[in-house]
Predict the structure.
Amino acid sequence: MIRNFVDLWDISPEEGWLLLQETVGFKKGLDRNRYLEGKNIALYFTKPSTRTRVSFEVAINHLGGNTIFLQEESLQAGRGEDIKDTARTLSRYLDCVVIRTDSHKKLEEFAKYSSIPIVNALTDMSHPCQILSDVFTLYETFGEELQSIKIAYVGDGNNVCNTWLVGAGLFGLKLFVATPEGYEPSSLYYQAGEDLCRLTGGSIYLTTNPIEAVKEAHVVYTDVWVSMNQDRKEEKLEALKPYQVNVQLLAHARADVRVMHCLPAKKGEEITEEVFEAHADYIFTQAENRLHAQKALLKFLLTQR
Ligand code: CP
Ligand code: NVA
């Protein structure tokens, strides 16, 4: 059976925990098998990327596979070829396509018509590879305590925030989300997260109060206020000002709070330079872990049965 990774709910909680454990093996260098020998994987991107592109290319290379980077402008899809025809064509050549695109619907359409695994490398709605890897970063730090720590997401209710809701559900985490009115995460992702929480014992609490979310938190997570392909609107930036992760806000968290950011960061907006630099080591470990977590994901998707 073809397995896609379009959203975090495409894997079960058991599979999620398995991926975290497998990631440990990859990170420690205990698993050096070339699971992707002879496989060709395309990265089809319509938006810029530093971490996702490079970590996938290096992960595939370490696993013995070959990558083909496809920018939409260079494909006939860039001239309007139907996405379903592109999907059906690429399925005849490749073993997997990793896609970053502006439209989640387009990704779903691609996955529907493709006969090889499709991986979401970020859409306007979700970023499952990011959150899978971020949960691994927390697992590395907190181990068995992972389900009892308080995680606060503060800022824009965007693709990363949406995916955190599902991540909390999948892994049974305690997530507090503070976003301004009018910039809340998607209700579809919230519902998916809540449904999973009922199975796993996780909990999601939504608020407009950043102090309430951050209070005694073990982890404070933020992301940019203006995502790729969004317009910079003064009204939105103004609404988000009280949600900046700065020293004053962090004073409400635990003294040993871990600050996370998926990157790229816009210092002076969602996070201050001071806080960013104080937590840079953790933030770049978070970035590094994309490489290890994606190896586990690719092994899972491409070597099953
Ligand atoms: N966090 C993340 O996905 O970074 P890139 O946009 O650089 O890939
Ligand atoms: N929310 C950000 C995440 C970047 C990794 C964006 O979509 O631009």
In short: The two ends are 8 Å apart (CA to CA).
